[in-house]
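Quick one - first record:
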Amino acid sequence: MSSSSTTDALHAQVDRMRLEIQSLSSEQGKEQISIGNYLLARLTQLGVTHMFGVPGDFNLAFLDLVEDHPSIEWVGNCNELNSAYAADGYARVKNQGLGVVLTTFGVGELSATNGIAGAFSEMVPVLSIAGVPSTVQQKKHYLLHHTLGDGRYDAYAKAAEQFTTHQAYIKNAATAAVVIDEAIVQCLTKAIYLTLPTDLVYAEVSSERLQTPLRRNVPLNDPQSEEFVLDQIETRVKDAGGDVVVLVDACVIRYNIKAEVMDFLKRTGFPVYAAPMGKTAVDENWERYGGIYVGSITDPVIKENIEKAKLILSIGSLQSDFNSGNFSYNIPIRRHIELHSDHTQVQYAMYPGIGFKQLLPKLTERLEKFHSTGSQIPVAPYIAQLPSDSTQVITQRWFWPRLGSYFKSGDLIVTETGTANFGILDVPLPPKTMLVSQILWGSIGWSVGACLGAAIAGRELDYGRTILFVGDGSMQLTVQELSPMIRLGLKPIIFLLNNSGYVIERTIHGKHRKYNDIADWKWTELLDVLGDRKTETKSYKVSTRDELDALFKDEVFLSNKTITLVEVTMDRLDAPRLLEAQVEVAMKTKCAEDIVRITKEAIEKDREVQDKVGKLDPKDCTFESVFLPLAQADTEIDRVTEPLSFYLNVSPTKEIRDASNEADSLLRDFSVESSMRLDVFDAKTAAEKNIKESGQWEKLSDEDRRLIDKMVLDGTRAGLALPEEKREELKKLKKELSQTCLEFSKNFNEEKSVITFTEEELKGVPKDVISGYGKRTEGDKTVYDVTYKTPDIFPIFKFAENPTTRQLAQEGYEARLEINVPLLDKVLDLRRRIAALLGYKTWADYITEVKMIKTGDGIKKFLDDLESKLRPVGEKEKAILLEIKKKEHEELGLPFDGEFYLWDYRYYDRKYIEKTLDLDDMLVKEYFPVSVVVPTILQIYQDLLGVQFYPIEGTVWHPEVQQFAVWEKDAKDQSGFIGYCYLDLFPRENKYSHAAVWGLLSGFTNPDGSRSYPLAAMVANLAKPTGEKPALMTHDDVVTFFHEMGHVFHGLLSKTKYARFHGTSVARDFVEAPSQMLESWCWEPKVLEKMSSHYKTKEALSPELIDKIIKSRYVNVGLFYLRQLFFAKFDYKVHTDQEKEDYTNLWCNLREQVSLVKSKRFSPGQGTFGHITGGYDAGYYGYTYSLVFAADMYRTVFKADPLDPARGKLYRDKILRWGGSREELDSLKDFLGREPNSNAFLEEVFGTVPPSHL
């Protein structure tokens, strides 16, 4: 299937090849032409008829040629900025034809910079030509006027690099023609920069190249990839049952695909809407056009029609703030397909190099079969609504709808970056109308210069009237450009909206500030002042609705025989509906200042409660006056601030992350302050005494009594029984520890280093992984920049055949956070000092006091016992892997030293699995597309636990985030509501780099007995889609996701009275047990079959492949758990040492002793041990310790039928429901029907326990 766009692209390639051949051949003897005329000839070929600019001594020679040229007319502007604006407006109306602006070196080109940058930002092809000093003057660095006084002639060119897509410098006659041609070809949708030295204007070049036309370079779509994308889109449309709406935007206009889009719409019947920058991209009177979509500020009917569709197809989307309602699009990625100029995104999968110009005609042929369905989707009429009030005041809400009947087909409408841009959106425009506006760049005054260029182009293309809407504040900035309009006999109708100043700024801030006011000019006399005393002009002033109505009936006005200005007076505070809504949304968005301010306010409110409690007379201290208000205050500060401090882990905006980090720092300091308040502790102990002596203790619930015990214990563990001097020292140490831990953790999210490899060095790494790496040229080699994010670096550990590559990657990974080494030293020293002050032998003893294991010695006994059982198994496994390594090294001719290194483990573990089980990780991965696995796992949990997930829409921190409301499956009313869940699944820069769950809101019972509902956010870093494949998950990813969702449901299904005990607020050495138990589902045949669907064939995993996956669970189990023991033993050792030691040596030596892997050099891997400051200090043993409980729970209750809802209900009722509101051992005994034991764990690890047969 061919299309005209494909043919054009092929012609462009052929012509480009011709030019390349000509540039290599000798051109002597050919007809000569001056460089200046060569440039003008090229511009003429591209349809340029006018050039804008201002004379200057470095462009005068070229200006002679321009003025004498038969086809190009010079339009002298009043200043260079306006000339750039005019070239911008000209190019837009010429359907992205080339706009040209000529300025002089330095002062002239810099004056035009704002306008050129705007063209670049808004993707308008503007050629900026700067006349510059001669090549001789530049070479000798003469100190000429317009230089910076330092002899540099490249300063302005370097500045242009920031806002032009290509910079071309004519340096000699030999290369001039090539330089000019290459520059113009680059100017497809953005501004380019070209210098023309004075001594080369008349230098001659061959005219041979002019015989080959220049065509804009539109790359061809790869046919195979394009076909795949077409299949993907067609499948999504089919899955949606044809329930599709189309959203057009700026790039439909910028890339001139309006005809292709309209053909697509007519042949599919799908309803269409436009973003603000896409207004007039389609005929607004067409019956299937529904209006403007601006995110949350959209008309409610339009908003519902778009957001309820099963699939939204965006074409040419550009989601800037004003174009998207301050980024409030409620279009989930899972229901979104985006067609762009250079890529296509189908839900989560992005396909680079597949542009809409060539894709759309083929997509039209594919989807026209859905016309019968698409044409039945209702579209509300898009009409201008006049307000029903009877006032004579001209308001924004009346003015713009009233213009609906004034506009007519063929009008060319230019709107200023002000109220006009917002007001015009509420008005449907007639067919063949063009709207010219600057929404993204938003330079005040742009519209006046742009109107000049637009009017010239409109006259050339036989448009009807040119109508400009501009505010008085904007007009004052660029009013000079009315003069060229009059001089050239143009006849724009200018509506000057007089509201005595800057309305947008007043709406945002400073409504009554003088800085938003301007002088009140005599506007109706303006055209006479700026005219040439010969041209007739017309000016009107209207102040009431009747006056405007009368004007629209005035025959002289309607005749439009000359330039006309209409001054429309409005109230100084009046703003269009959409502008007011936009500002309201922006103000509601939490900005960086809000995060810190709200946190400080929450802290102060909590402090007030503590102050009140601390002042109580001991006899007045009761459960109601002390424990309840303190518990409620703790709950409230967490409710307000937990989401704010969460942003530091997920926000894409640095300012927000920094503010969130500051908020977290404030909260940590306040936590230390609160824990050290002796007055509050005295009130707690007095209340406890009074409660017990009064007999109230027996009347309280178990959870009430647990609250008292824990709150009093908090004070004891905080050292409040210490003398004042030691308390102050302890307080200082705790604050210092808190801040150091925060800095340690922050470095993880801010780490951005990369390691670079060639393709040869990456041999063995899957191609779809390599395609996601940053690719660049280094000298004559292509290299790949690999981040240390898990989806990037771990495939190298597992697949890179070159051991040196693996070694470098592993050593880099270990050393990537060397910055954390001194911080960890400081953390451990502070913990030793704190433990000593509190009277504990070690930090481990302090930490374990409130855990199930109870003592530091208990940790040591557990780890030593497990190591003694694991070591023999690990030694055997290591010997097997070493033999595989030896054989491979012999086959590859690599030296073999008999050692097993850290970077060998994952690689040969995979090789062993492939060899013994014939199990290919990458093949397995193909059966686990994210789009299948995630909803299937959610469904398994829903069925097992009797709940239902409902997708909801709302403001989130990133467009990829999914939101759900969670209800009881049989809910009949509000009592069946459970809570909320967020999923943030894919990696991005500055995001938390592993997988974890945050309980952003805890569930609890309000004082009035009502329920406050929990909210849990799951953050992961699954591999993103590639050009060839959708987002796929390894089996490890599947296990991790299942595990983390276990934490989510622990948070959602807990039902405690107090937030303190909610969800995962249990002993640290038990918190992982429920999720570890749930990992077992990922090794069950029926579940694996249910979760799998090959991304191409849609087939589930075969029984044979499932069997291999299950058998791989305990392959090399000894080495796996020895690695876990290494982490746990390091954690234990550093938290029981009495003195500081060399922790890098400890890290590397202990790893070799316990994990049985060697290193060639000692890297400071302890800097990457995030658990040690993330709440698992002296607690890493808990991962293995809790496995004992996990294995016991699964085998005892779930093994017989893991998908049985009755067993799921038992799990909810006995484990999840209680959270930390009772002893964890009591919950376990209640669930198991007996005391827990380690039999199941030991048999799974050291025996052969077959899976259940479902």
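second record:
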Amino acid sequence: MAHNISHISIVLGMHRSGTSALTRAMHAVGFELPRTIMSPVAGDNAQGFYESTAIMELNDRILESAGQNWYSLGSIPDVWFDSADAKIWLPEIKDTVLAEYPNTKKIVIKDPRINKLLPLWLGALEQIQSKISIVVACRHPLEVAESLRKRNSIDIEHGVLLWLEHNREIARYTRGLQRLYVGFDNLLSHTESQLNRLLSALSVDLNEAAIKKSYEELTESLQGNLKNFNVDASELSKFELRDISLAWQWLQFQCNADLSLLDRNSRIPSIDAPLIGTYEKPLDRLHATWANFRTTRFNARLLSGLLSDANTEIENVKAQTDKTNTSHIEENHALEKKISGLAQELDHAKEQHLILNEQLIASSDELSSERKSVSNLTAQLSHLEQHSHDTLEKLITRSELQASAHEKVLQEETQRLEALIVKAQSNVTDLRSQLVDQHHRATALDRQLVSTRSSAAFRAGSKVLSLTRRFRGSVVGRSLLLVKAAVGFRLGQWLRIRRNIKFLERSGEFDVEHYLSTYPILAHSRLSPIEHYVCNGEAEGRTPSASFNPRVFAHSQNYDPNSSWGIFAQYLQLSEAVREDERTIENPQYVIASSATQESSLNEPLTTKKSHELVVTEETSIDPRLLQFSCSDKPIASVIIPVFNNTKDTLACLESLTQQSLNDFEVIVVDDGSTIDMSDLGLVKGIQLIKNRQNLGYLHSANKGASLAKGQFIVQLNNDTIVSHGWLKALLAPLQEDASIGLAGSQMLSKDGLLQEAGGIIFADGSGYNYGRTDNPDNDLYNFVRDCDYCSGASIALPANVWNSLGGYDAFFTPAYYEDTDLAMRVRQMGLRVVYTPFSKLIHIEGVSCGSDESDANSMKRFQKINRVKFVERWNQELTRYGSLDDNREIHNHVAKTNRLGRILWVDANTPTPDQDAGSIDTAQHLSRLKADGWDVTFAPWDGYRYEGKYTDNLRAIGIRVLCQGHAHTLAAIESLNIDFDVITLSRAPVAITAHPVLKKLFPQAKIVFNTVDLHYLRYERELELISSNNSNSKPKNQPVQKKDELAIMRLADATLVVSDMEKQLLETELDQRDASRVAVIPSPRNVHPPTRTFEERVDVGFLGSYQHPPNIDAVDHFLSNIWPRFSARMPGVRFIIAGSSIPEKFLKLKSDTIRPIGFVEDLEGLMESVRIMVAPLRYGAGIKGKVISSMCYGIPQVATRMAAEGMPLTHNVELLIANDDADFVEQMIELYTNETLWNRLSTEGMNCVDNTFSS
């Protein structure tokens, strides 16, 4: 690599010895600093370190390879510098220096780590073939040690030894070289003389004016309190090692000696013996003595700390004993008081007994009176029975008379209405005649109108027609021609729908059963399944059969969007199963009647796509006066839109921005010196319009707009885009939720609805690839948040502080192209991530902003080729790890790459629904943890292969690839991924038994992990045992898996996961030693949510569980029959809340004052804040019970059976109460419900258990 470097000056010296100040002095006399400089740190080096970040990181890696670091005691062995391990660093040192000092003649290199690596560095710098000078900074050892203690917490003794060793290595390695020692105190107090000394030693030729300017700059930079520590030189005598004092004296001499003397002395081998010679022999003894001293001091401090802790513990125990004695005395007083109160209550009860006895006597008298009343009523009833026949006859006669009168009135009314009908028919005949006459006159006028109309006028009329459809079908003031067009359109549309319906009915390919089972809500539709599909379902993306997805076929080359046939009908017409004559059904077309002079375009069917585009897309204009924006003084985001000579697309973009779900954002439009009239943009209310006097190019316009932004986030948006309703909110979400993300980009679609980009890929040659281009945007591959190489700048967002730190787009890539790719690289260089989010969607009209032809000399597109060369030159070293990818499988593997762990496929029965069942909470937590740890995670629902709304999107939002659409079944979706998985996790025995053979065949290299969730065979055995103990003839509804099959999967898997030690111990008795050794315990991952309401603020008793799980139904049934009635009788006014998804109808029917079945609870925290205690009356099951953990997570104490508490480290009366039988369950509930002290203790211990055992 060519360079201009002629003189290299290396600044050496121990850390904190003034190397930064000395480097500033070197810079003042003409030596250039590196390109990347460490930032100043307040309280440490506020003036700046003046050293290269790249060189510092390189030296750290070299020291690590040699088993050292800068604060290690002991030199690197000389033999290492001659080894191959050392020489491998020489090219990188040279390349780093040349990269840090481009186009520079005189340079200064400063990093105290070079003290230990000087032979290696000298060897590398010799290859540059430039003059090399050594300048050494010196400072008192105690000042250095004190500064290291404050900054790095290094012991004073250790710091002094480091000072000695670093200076010894400098002296030894620079023997025979030109070197100059500069004292830190001298530099601060005699700046001018030291500056002259540097000029002379380094042979720098400056005139007086330049020397004066250098002196002034250096003096200004050295102002302030740079010296934070001053020591007494006599303090050095406290150190027993005499070498330290001798070394400091020698260094002081060097700092003050005449330059000619120094030049001679550097060539005398023995001249630095005070620093080197006396130190080499006792070095090993010194290290041993130092180690013994540190060990002895540590033990002394440890014993002192243990003694202090013991004394504290004794005092605590004493205080606790006193407190306990006081508590016992208070409890005795309370008991005595309670006994006295009970005696009083007994006396009161005796008095009440006498009163009740008197009331009983009075009640007996009242009862006698009531009996007399009953006797009287009986007599009256007998009388009525005797006379009821006569009364009934009278009522019948009266009713017949009333009916006769009503019939007469009805006849009279009928005659009146018939007369009115005759009169109305006569009026209708007259009006019809008038209407015919009016129609003939109107038709003649319309024909005259059509004959004089241009095609443009007709298009305008068509546009009016489309706009007036919103007025509920009103035709007031509209031409009859337009009315006829609307009728023709509707009739053609109806006929097309009927034709498609009949075709699908004849084909027999529409799967009614599949349609209704997949979309059960449609069972209540007034339309038949086929009618619903043709009218609405196909447009909504619903599938007419398990093997066909209309959204996928709509993006294939076989689909004709202009055809009047639907998507499914076109697909069937391509199939051999459809008869040829069914493919030739006539297509009636309805056109507007027109004169011979009407343009041919008017004869096209109104139902074609072309006509639709004519009315809606091509001719739509936007009134800028109707667009309005508003935001707060400190908006959440600033949207920057550079514009050049394009009003139409910009207004369309702005109109879409007015529909955002997030409102608090500002819009900054930068008109980049347009040469056409752009005044319409000035009519848009609420935007900030910036006009460049001349064309600066996209890059500078984007930076200029961002420099005026007030938002927390900078959003760069192309003007040739149409954004979706939730575009901005979704784009900002990753940045707001994860501080490790520095840049987010959107999913971009083309005008035809196909995918344009789902994040970008960079290759080693600097070329880029828009991932997913021209593919179906609904493909699962493109619908999850993920890290990517870069995102196209047409729609990106960054935190404002990140944008400002980077300085926005780099002017190096002026005027445009590769500025966004470079920006992403620099964001990653900051240690931040670049992500793509599919939830932020927009249409990008590619090529409108900058053209599309690289070879066009007048097109901005030509800079794409030019700037690619610049990009490769800048990032050449980093690009080597990106490789070159040629086929789809490699591309998808590249997207799924990870630098840490690998690619994992997680297969479960269904998509987890964490707000509905505890098992889903565990699955979601496991997936989230894997993603956070660095795995590329794909989730596949084996049985429930479908899109599950928020549950699918919640996984996608945290970066998990979810398979749910586009294929006939899950296996086909997995095969289509073209990803080589490293690990496959199969959850639940039924899934594992089915999926293992096929997935192992597809991915033979992958490790298989069987996640049991719970032992299915064990749960089934316990259910049978429970039924048997109840002497019942009933049987479990189904046996999910056979025990032998579940154990067989464990033997085939590379690892098996269980949730408790109990299950692991059980499997150790069922499996041989080899298979049992592969069983691991992974507890359910949960987080604690401390309660906010107190004991007194809570009333209810609760049960939470999913009722798709049979043990939960059995538990509630048993509880309601055998436990709740006894509890409710003793604790009136308390309600039992039955919560959870899929609640059976029989529980809903039990609603009463004391039983409240609420079913699915979206806000689990709200439920937990309302109940006082939870119950877990499970009688059979397996695994860890999620409901028990959930209650402890929220700090809600509970009463549980031993079965419910199984498998967890729970103790009765510590984390919860465990009941032995139904009677004990009632007593435990009453005790927990009424004892606030017990409640508080169990709440705390339960949350501690979650933290210690189940915390995620």
